[in-house]
Amino acid sequence: MRSPLSRRGFLAAGSGLAAAALPALSGCSPFASADSDPGTLTVHTQLGTTAPGSPTYKAVVEQFHTEHPGLRVKNLVNGDDLPQVYETSRLARKEPDVVMVNLYDKTLAWTEVGATVDVRGYLDDWGLRERVLPAALTEWTDGEGRLRAFPYFATNWPVAYNTALLERAGVGAVPTTGDQLIGAARKLRAKGIAPVTVGGNDWTGQKLLAQIIQTFLSPDEARKVYASGDFSGSRGVREGIDYFVELRDAGVFADKAQGLTSDIMTTQYNTEAAAIQSAMSSALAKVPARTAGHTAVGGWPLAPGAAHDKPTILRSYTLIGFWISPNGVRKIASVEKFLRFMYRPEVVSRFITESGRDMALVTDTVSKDFPLVAEAQRLGDRVGQVLLPDLHVPPTATQPLITATSTAFTRGTSAAAVRSTLESAYRTG
């Protein structure tokens, strides 16, 4: 898929924006000196607030300062708005040297349009290729063979089951089929317990919907569906949407799931108001010890005739990478020192042991203090895997798909209406 954001479009669109932004990017702005001080490496990151791994990141940066007294890392911290803030700074040529962000939505086009650089040569020149899992290299490489960033964080995205709540409701085992899941939901509701909690109004619901839709699709078929936005053209995708609607209208999802967010979802599961959640590694790491003690990690239940042999999970190696900007190329010796340090096995291990992060790098370290993360890492071939659609959805459709997801989770919406709503996300984006 070619990004709709061309090099010419990025620069042309930015001419007016950059002019408007320049006052904010000068004077006291943190971007003003991004490329002016050879002794400072400016890193734009999402690690610095409440994001999992933030305390570890701050600690290892201090260790880096101790080992490199002549080089200071200056962190610029943003949350979900980081891509937009970075693009604004790039248009004004005041961008930071290194960016730590995931491969998703806007960032898919960055290397193609020159907002960041292909790092394949640096990875090889610095001898770091063997540190990266092959699957991570594949996911971070675009269709032209460019390596967008140095892979770092990964995630497993299994399903967490509160076995104590299931037992209280008279459910004897973790459900592995759709019929078992529907039966479990009825019993849970009878006890006043929400079955599957999900952020039907945000990205968590989008991912679970995508996972269920793929019940009858091979990875290649799913790739075509999410690249094209054709949710009607194959029998498999129609059956997947029918399966989702069947589960939804049978009461499998928490009440008013279409209005819930990821924060509400994790709160409901962690406080044991809900029995089941689709949870990525960072959410599993936050499950309280009491709840974690009776949580089993597995896959999403299948329907008869599914394209998979076992309940499914999602996996991704694109959660956070180190992108190098054009300004960063001017300080490439400093960037090399920083990335060599961040790739050191003992530094990588700290993110695993202290923060419960999954890594896109080769490591034998296990999250001993984060048992559910470790359990997810050990699932292996006990589960199947479906495609995370993020790398294949056109950036212009990403946010409209989340809006469409809320409609899909609204009980009573027909399968035909769900298909139409999903397809419209590609036309209106």
Automatic annotation (TrEMBL):
The entry's keywords: Signal
PANTHER family: ABC TRANSPORTER SUBSTRATE-BINDING PROTEIN, ARABINOSE-BINDING PROTEIN-RELATED
Organism expressing this protein natively: Streptomyces globisporus
One family name in Pfam for this protein: SBP_bac_1
Signal peptide bounds: 1-34
InterPro entries assigned: Bact_solute-bd_prot1, SBP, TAT_signal
Stated name of the protein: Carbohydrate ABC transporter substrate-binding protein
